[in-house]
Design a protein that fits this description.
Layout lengths: L9 H5 L4 H11 L4 E2 L12 H11 L17 H13 L9 E5 H13 L5 E6 L3 H9 L3 E8 L2 E2 L1 H13 L4 E6 L13 H14 L2 E5 L28 E6 L10 E5 L2 H15 L4 H12 L2 H28 L4 E2 L7 E5 L6 H10 L2 E2 L1 E2 L12 E5 L5 H16 L8
Parallel strand pairs: 1-12, 3-4, 3-6, 6-7, 7-8
Antiparallel strand pairs: 2-9, 4-5, 8-9, 10-11, 11-14, 13-14
Helix pairs in contact: 3-10, 5-6, 5-9, 11-13, 12-13
This protein binds pyridoxal-5'-phosphate.
């Protein structure tokens, strides 16, 4: 039997795959492929020695609970540690407002499953993270895009979109936003806009899902930690659900992220999580907890910032050398991505085809847009490849752009 379509439920039938995951499959197939596709951290910077020592100390067999089922809400000492981590970000939360998730991706999924009814409108940035799009669409949200400006979300457009949806009789329940070094654009929401956005959410009675994987990865030549202040830090009315993760600051393989939300909602997320995974990996949580407790994560952060800043410089220098008259982009102030606009007449999908022929993969810009636009954009991730491979990848990109059929460029 090889056709299972008739067994699929309507939801099973319409499940969305993340475009970035799809690109990951291409990367796995390739041989000499340079990948600017997934936002993977640089594996050379995983703190291997510390982690080996921590894992060995936990796996002595002395404590059976190390490999036992754990509480759905999360490993209690890690929850307590997270309250401290959050305080350093100016977020005051109690333990009953925190839940550990299997990566922040699960936080988005839980928020979508618990809060969204089929047909509810969820507002998202244009463009936004494909994993967010997938989770929200799978909960049958109607995703409506809001324009971005160089300093983040366009608040005038936000309110116009909200009013239009309300006039159409829709319930606008959530805004999903990535204020710090946004995926895919790299943009940083200004402090003034953060303040106004919270006021807007109160006025319009909308909950905000704030996704913050990259906040501590600012480039200190162009950004300060103060500029990454979470919305949740100034949320006095319980409007903001804050998500973060150890994926970019320690290692994504642990799948340890967390969500901060009003206690009444955390209860609901806890129940929803029970039917998904019972608990996030307890060994992973214990290793992460030890890594935070021993100061490994804090010690690593400046190194990560310096390395990713360097890689951004390498990519931008290479882009300036070979593509300055063909591509436009805004220099990111942190995070993993350069977001570029293509020469007039070239499209992301055609360019990707040619790039693959030249041994390069990236993510097409249109995958990040919920309104079908963005075909003149691409996302280039500089986080994982070595500096040499970044230069090689940009050279391949230049060759692929130059190889456009005559008449397709201007
Ligand atoms: C904006 C954003 N949210 C969530 C995630 C998922 O992170 P995690 O590995 O913690 O699930 C990513 C990963 O790329 C991301 O860029």
């Amino acid at each position: 039997m090889n056709n299972y379509d008739k067994y699929l439920s309507p939801i099973g039938r319409q499940l969305q795959e993340s475009a970035i995951r799809r690109m990951g499959t291409v990367v796995a197939r390739g041989t000499d492929l340079v990948s600017f596709a997934p936002g993977y951290p640089d594996a050379a910077l995983f703190p291997w020695d510390d982690l080996r020592e921590i894992a060995a100390s936990l796996l002595t067999g002395a404590d059976g609970n190390t490999l036992q089922y754990g509480p759905t809400r999360g490993y209690q000492p890690l929850l307590e540690t997270l309250v401290e981590v959050l305080r350093a970000r100016d977020i005051r939360a109690t333990i009953d407002e925190v839940i550990i998730t299997s990566g922040s991706q699960q936080g988005i999924d839980l928020a979508a499953r618990v809060l969204v009814s089929p047909g509810d409108v969820v507002l998202v940035e244009l463009p936004t993270f494909t994993g967010g799009i997938a989770a929200l669409k799978n909960a049958q949200a109607e995703l409506v895009g809001v324009k971005q400006q160089p300093d983040g979300l366009d608040l005038d457009d936000l309110d116009e979109v909200w009013q239009r949806q309300r006039r159409a009789g829709k319930t606008v329940k959530l805004l999903y936003i990535i204020p710090n070094f946004q995926n895919p654009t790299g943009s940083l929401l200004s402090l003034e806009k953060r303040r106004r956005l919270l006021e807007w959410a109160d006025r319009r009675d909308v909950l905000i899902v704030e996704d913050d994987p990259y906040g501590s990865l600012y480039f200190d030549d162009v950004a300060t930690p103060a500029e990454t202040r979470p919305l949740r830090a100034d949320d006095v009315n319980g409007r903001v659900l804050y998500l973060s993760t150890f994926s970019k600051t320690l290692a994504p393989g642990f799948r340890v992220g967390w969500m901060v939300a009003p206690a009444a909602l955390v209860e609901r997320f806890d129940t929803a999580k029970q039917s998904t995974d019972l608990t996030s990996g307890i060994l992973d949580q214990r290793i992460v907890h030890e890594a935070v407790r021993r100061g490994v994560v804090d010690r690593l952060a400046p190194t990560l910032r310096a390395l990713y800043r360097h890689k951004r410089e390498v990519m931008e220098r290479a882009l300036r050398e070979s593509l300055i008259d063909r591509l436009t982009w805004a220099s990111p102030k942190g995070g993993f991505f350069v977001w570029a606009t293509l020469p007039t007449g070239q499209t992301d999908t055609e360019l990707l085809e040619r790039a693959l022929d030249h041994g390069l993969v990236f993510v097409i810009g249109s995958a990040f847009f919920v309104d079908g636009s963005g075909h003149d954009t691409i996302r280039l991730s500089f986080s994982a490849p070595s500096p040499d491979r970044i230069v090689e990848g940009v050279n391949r990109l230049a060759a692929a752009i130059a190889a456009a059929p005559v008449g397709r460029t201007s």
